[in-house]
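Subject: Sanity check before I submit

Could someone independently write out the structure tokens for this chain? I want to compare against mine line by line before I put it in a report. The sequence has 350 residues.
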Amino acid sequence: RQRALHVLEAGLAAELHDALLTLRTEWPRLAQELELGRLSPQPGLPEELREQLQALLSPAVARAAEIRDQCAHGFEGIALRLWPRLEVVVVRTMRGTERLYCDSLRQADCRGLPFYCPFYQAAGALLGVNLWPAEPVPRFVLCPDWAFCEFLPCLASKEPRTVLLDELWEGREYGLVVTAQPGEYRCRTGEVLKVTGFHKQCPVVEPVRRESQTLSVRGESIPEEQFCQSLCRTLSLWPGARLIDYVCVESSLLGDSSGPCAPHYEVFLELQGLRDLSEVQRYKLDQCLQEDFPIYKSFRFKGSIGPLRLHLVRPRSFTRLREALGSPMPMPRVLREEQLLQLIQGAVIS
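---
Independent answer below. Compare away.
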């Protein structure tokens, strides 16, 4: 209804992505509902009162006409065309592979708008603030008095001990441990942060991955952000393809349906611009993973990890998957629940 919005705000970029995706199919009904208040002739209603009511409702009628006109001309840059005063898109979470949704919005619906993630939150606590709104990749200054944070070095040669804020090194990665909520003491959040520098004496960090989203069927441990990089590199070898969304499954979750083959990955993709992939194209992802991860290549060569299987799913499959997750939460890149696996398997078209 409000044409004069200055900010679009969402908890997750995926929520805004899904809302604007719904706009693409539901805009005729949306416009119709906006003008439902338009008065038809009603016997017994005084003409003066009818004119006053119509004057109050006429902005909604005009807005409905504008929505019809703008949506009929396509959806590239639709956010600025529907709300010409927009200045920024604010999302409360934009970590690691969640940037996939921001990139998709920047390229199409929200073209021309900057994205800003103002705060860093984990384990229900506010931990840091983003002082660089113009930068595309958010970085956060950790604020010492907002919560008590400890850090587990990721490359420790032996059992690591936690270190504190003043012991962090630039360029290194750490697992985050937080004490903030009553009754929750030294909680491992499962998030890995990279120290990118310091603001005065406070560390500046970038969230890079979630430990639970690591792929590993033989102990090879491929982190989610590095798998995503290999996947994006593969897409550059598929002319015309644009990645909408993806999820991975370790074959152990498939049970008997995976057959007698060696443990392997199954990847479900939603693509735009390609209806199908040849076997040669499908193998490119496995090939890129072997090039990017020598341990994976070694297991593939020995046959202890089988070839990756790639599936294409129908449009909006991941919107329905996120709905099945319940309350808004960052998209899992490695599915661990059979119910969610069955949902995405039911959407496979190739």
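---
OP: Matches mine. For the report I'm noting this point. The chain has three domains: 7-116, 119-210, 214-346.
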